[in-house]
Design goal:
CATH class of the largest domain: Mainly Beta
Family: Belongs to the NEMF family.
Structural class: alpha+beta
GO molecular function: ribosomal large subunit binding; rRNA binding; tRNA binding
Subunit structure: Associates with stalled 50S ribosomal subunits. Binds to RqcP.
Coiled coil: 290-324
CATH superfamily of the largest domain: ibrinogen binding protein from staphylococcus aureus domain
Number of domains: 4
CATH topology of the largest domain: ibrinogen binding protein from staphylococcus aureus fold
Strand content: 15-25%
InterPro entries: NFACT_RNA-bd, RQC_Subunit_NEMF, RqcH_bacterial
Shape: elongated
CATH architecture of the largest domain: Roll
């Protein structure tokens, strides 16, 4: 977020929101604050974020983030001092990325007090700071901050309660409306649109950021002259400060990538939006979603792979123990030989060499405990033989359980690859319920009731107009195959592998077109571990032949009366089918 964008936001908020009341205050994350502002036209949530990578300020346009049950320290300070107060002014420190919200609020005794909430957008040094204020809106003493800065972190400027607030050091940059070609830094004309030229402009000209610097260079790239560039910068600054036209820049996939108070010709497509706050919100909604999804995806995939490594280690130990357990026949033979020939052994012997029952010429060497008699050694061997014989079935059960868990985790990992941000919490909860992740609990708090509706399977329309449903996680698979499926619906799944459950809806014994069956099989293969394979075996049967064993993991079912179809989910063939998602 650059200074020109912030200037456009501040100008709009001065006109519309000064005088509004602070209704509620929440802190959904460690670096973000939400203020519910109310005026005659209604109320809206204002987001102020001091995130190290995504510091920003704008009104929310989508769903409000969920606040934690216990409000953090900074949130409690804001509620104590400015909740119920009035917004008197919104100010920007010149064209720097510092914005101040000036409030008045009455204390419990009825005294009128003044406060300033300052958002400093400075990359990894971004911060939100609450201070007392003078009646003219000048900040005074620091009450609290999102991040404290002591002398060990900065010798220039400290931030902690009880000391006077100091503005960030000023950057001696040139105002964009006052600049000329002589004020421009040295620019590389061979790489006119390069990052080096953009950074040079950002360091020299106040209010410019990556988007505005790129746009300035792009608009005069045909001539690549400093005089023309200076003219374009003044023109864009005039747009921003006097006649803003908020726009969003879209990339080749038509995804919101950039925002500015002017049209963005340097992007494949530029669309106008109603106000600057909406433009900022749209772009950051996508960026933050990608950031959250990437972080949560990595956390879940790492947890799954660690669990798989533990299971593989367990299987290796079971395999070694199984080899030992099959020695029970030999141990029993030792005991029987000692019973038969033990009378001939001297007391205190360390080894017995006795003829085999099957071949008397073959001698068997049996280790002995010299402290025990031959009969006592025989009983020891009988006990060891019985123990190892009993362990065969136990180890086999443990092996089957570990293999089933590995297959289950494979299915979760395959589903995680295509999961949306909204589906990740459901996958996390499933792993917690199955014991592969620790549940996060807050001491003294009862678990919150699940108010959110379960996510729904994806719906596709076949080329013949038939409905095809695809479960995207194990919870959806169970609901689709066991609860939602009707007896004569056709159920599909990749054979002997992890993947989605697929269902073709039909009435009675209505014949399913071959093309629809192939498309459903393609979806089953595509949403499985075999996505990149050829000739993938997909089984299909009526839903009445599918059932869930007692105690089975989520997504695990058994089936019979199946037939097999072989398909290859080539990306070029899948594109048209995937575009028919959610068509009814």
């Amino acid at each position: 977020m650059d200074g020109l964008t912030l200037a456009t936001l501040v100008r709009g908020w001065k006109e519309e929101w000064v005088g509004c009341r602070v209704d509620k205050i929440q802190q959904p994350t460690a670096s973000e604050i939400l203020l519910s502002l109310r005026h005659r036209q209604g109320s809206r949530w204002l987001l102020l974020s001091a995130h190290k990578a995504y510091a920003r300020v704008h009104f929310l346009t989508g769903q409000k983030p969920v606040a934690p049950p216990e409000p953090p320290r900074f949130c409690m300070q804001l509620r104590r001092h400015i909740e119920g107060g009035r917004l008197l002014d919104v100010r920007q420190l010149e064209l720097d990325r510092v914005v101040q919200f000036f409030f008045s609020a009455r204390s419990e005794l009825g005294d009128l007090n003044y406060f300033v909430l300052t958002l400093e957008i400075m990359g990894k040094h971004s911060n939100l700071i609450l201070t007392t204020a003078h009646p003219d809106g000048q900040p005074d003493e620091i009450i609290d901050a999102i991040y404290f800065v002591d002398s060990s972190k900065s010798r220039v400027r400290q931030i902690f309660p009880g000391i006077p607030y100091e503005f960030p050091p000023t950057q001696k940059k040139i105002h964009p409306l006052e600049m000329t070609a002589k004020d421009l830094p040295f620019l590389d004309k061979q790489d006119w649109l390069g990052k080096a030229n953009q950074l040079s402009l950002i360091k020299q000209i106040a209010g410019l950021g990556p988007t505005s610097a790129r746009e300035s260079l792009y608009r005069c790239s045909d001539v690549a002259e400093e005089a023309q560039l200076a003219l374009e910068i003044r023109r864009l600054a005039t747009f921003s400060l006097r006649h803003p036209e908020p726009h969003i820049g879209l990339d080749e996939e038509e995804k919101a990538t950039a925002y500015a108070p002017f049209p963005l010709h340097s992007y494949p497509k530029s669309i106008a939006v109603s106000n600057m706050s909406e433009a900022v919100a749209q772009v950051f909604h996508r960026l933050v979603a990608i950031h959250q999804e990437t972080g949560e995806y990595k956390a879940l995939s790492d947890a799954i792979r660690k669990a798989q490594d533990r299971l593989r280690g367990k299987l290796a130990k079971i395999s070694a123990l199984q080899e030992d357990s099959h020695e029970h026949d030999r141990l029993r033979m030792f005991g029987e030989l000692l019973l038969a020939y033990g009378y001939s052994l001297p007391r205190g012997a360390k080894e017995a060499v006795l003829p085999s029952f099957e071949d008397e010429e073959k001698m068997i060497h049996i280790p002995l405990d010299p402290a025990k008699t031959a009969m006592e050694n025989a009983q020891t061997y009988f006990r060891q033989s019985s123990k190892r014989k009993r362990s065969i079935e136990i180890l086999e059960q443990e092996k089957r359980s570990a293999e089933a868990d590995l297959l289950y985790l494979d299915s979760v990992l395959a589903q995680l690859r295509d999961a949306s941000l909204q589906e990740l919490p459901e996958i996390r909860k499933e792993l917690e319920n199955e014991g592969f992740l620790k549940k996060i609990e807050i001491r003294g708090k009862k678990p919150a009731k699940q108010s959110q509706r379960p996510s729904q399977p994806d719906h596709y329309l076949s080329n013949d107009g038939w409905s095809i449903w695809v479960g995207r996680n194990n919870q959806q698979n169970d609901r689709l195959s066991i609860k939602s499926a009707r007896p004569h619906d056709l159920w599909l799944h990749v054979q002997d592998g992890a993947g989605s459950h697929v269902l073709i809806r039909r009435e009675g014994n209505q014949e399913i077109p071959q093309k629809t069956l192939e498309e459903a099989a393609l979806l089953a293969a595509y949403f499985s571990k075999s996505r990149d394979s050829s000739n993938v075996a997909v089984v299909y049967t009526e839903a009445r032949h599918v059932w869930k064993p007692n105690g089975a993991r989520p997504g695990h079912v058994l089936y019979d009366h199946q037939q097999t179809l072989f398909v290859t989910p080539r990306q070029v063939d899948m594109e048209a089918l995937l575009k028919r998602k959610n068509q009814v």
